[in-house]
Amino acid sequence: MNSLLKNIIRFVLLILVQVYVLDQIHLHKMVTPYLYFIFILWLPFNMNRSMQLLVAFALGFTLDSFRHNPGFHAAACVLIAYVRPFMINLLIPQEGADGNYDEPSIKSMGGLLPYFIYVAVLTLIHNAWLFLLEAWQFGNIWYFLVKTLLSAAISLLLIIITELLFVRKQKFRTNTV
Amino acid sequence: MRNIFLFIRRYANLLFFLLLQGFSIYLIVHYNRYQNAVFSNTTNQLTGKVDEQYSKIKSYFFLRKTNDSLVKENAKLLNLLKADYLIPDSGSIAKMDTVLVDSVKQFRRYSYMPATVISSTVSTQSNYIVLNRGAVQQFKKGMGVVDINNAAVGIITDVSDDYAVVMSLLHKDSHIDGKLLKGGETGTLTWEGDVPNIISIKGISRSSKVVKGDTIITSGNSTTFPKGMMVGYVTEVIPEKSKNNFLIRFKTAADFHSLQYVYVIDNKQQEAINQLLEKAKQQNK
Asked: How far is A120 from chain B (nearest CA, A)?
C-alpha cells in the first residue's frame, strides 16, 4: 500500500480510537490511556524532519480540537517528533540500517530491546511534557509525577498490545538490486 | 548576512521545532481562560458534527436509564397538574377592587430548555460539556445548566450557531455559589482537580453545624441558577488550619460520568438586571 495513504488512514483511525474509546476510560478516575501518538513513532524513516514536526503538530492539534483544550497535545507531539530522529540514530545498530526498512519496528531496529527503549523513552517524554504543562497551570507536582508514571506504563502496555495485534509486514529493501 | 542565512539553514529544524512548540504554548495560555472555552467556531462546528454522530450511537446504550429518569420526571410533573388542585369559588362575592396591581397574574422568571449532551470529559483539569443546541435556539453565554433531576451541572461559556460549550462544575475556574440547605450559610464551590464528582466548598464558618450527609443547594445569589437547585451531599468536613472556616467536601448530585440530557435555564430578567448593574457601575466611575 502507498505509504501516504497508509499514514492518512492511520491518522484518522488513531484519532477516532483515542477520542471515542480511550478517552472514555478513566482508570481509578486518574489515568487516561493514550495511544494515538504511536502514529508519530511509526512515521517512515526517510521523512523530512520539518515535515515530521508539522505532521505531529497536526495530530496533536486535531486531538486538542476534540477535547476543547487547544495546545497541550500539540506541544507534546511536536516534542516527541523532534526527539525521534536522535533516538533512532542512537539505537539503530549500524550505519545506514534505517535505509533497509520503511519505518521503525522490532525488525528494523534490530531487536526487541532497542525498539522497546525507543518506544518507552518517547512515551515517557510525551506523557511527562503533557502533564507538566497541565501541572504548571495547576500546581501539586507529586500528584502529576505519579500520574505521569502510571499513565506512561498504561500507554506502553497498550502499544505492546497494538504491536502484537497488528503485525506490520515490512519488506527488506536493498540498493544492491 | 551570509552567516545569518547559514545559521538559519543549519538550525532550521530546531527553529521550526521551537516555533511550533511556542505556538502550542501560546494556544494553551491564550485559550484556556474562562472566557475562551472554544478557540474558534469552525473547529467547534467540525468536531461537533463528528461528536453528534457518535453520541447518537452511544445514546442507545443508555435507553433504559434515560427511560427511568423520564418516568420519574413525568411523575413529578403529573403531581403539579392543575387538575390536582381545587380553586376556591370566589365568583359570588362582589367587592370593590382597590388594588391597582393585578396580584393574580404571575410572571415567568425562569424557563427551561432541553438539550442533549454530545460530548463531555471528566478526566482533565478543565472539563467541558458540549450541547447539541446553540445560538439559533436562543442559548446564550452565562446560562445555567442542570441535569434531568435538577442538579447543577455548569454554566454555558460559549455558543456557536448549532452548539454550546458548558464549563462543568469540574473545572478549576468554575466558581458557583452554594448554600447549606439546613443552616443557610453560603460559600464558593471549587474543584481541586483530582477526583471527579467530589467538589469542595469554602468560606463556611466553624460556627455552623455541618454534618456528613447534609444537602448543598444553589444559593440564588447569582442570576444563573434559581435558588434551591440540588448541588450535592456533604461527605467530609475538615476544619481549615489557622482559619475560622470549614473546608467541606461533597459528592455532586449530578453524575458527570453519564450525562445524557440536560436542561438549560433561561433567566428572563437577566437583561434587566444586567442593565441595572451597568448603570450602577457607570455611576461609580
From this structure: 22
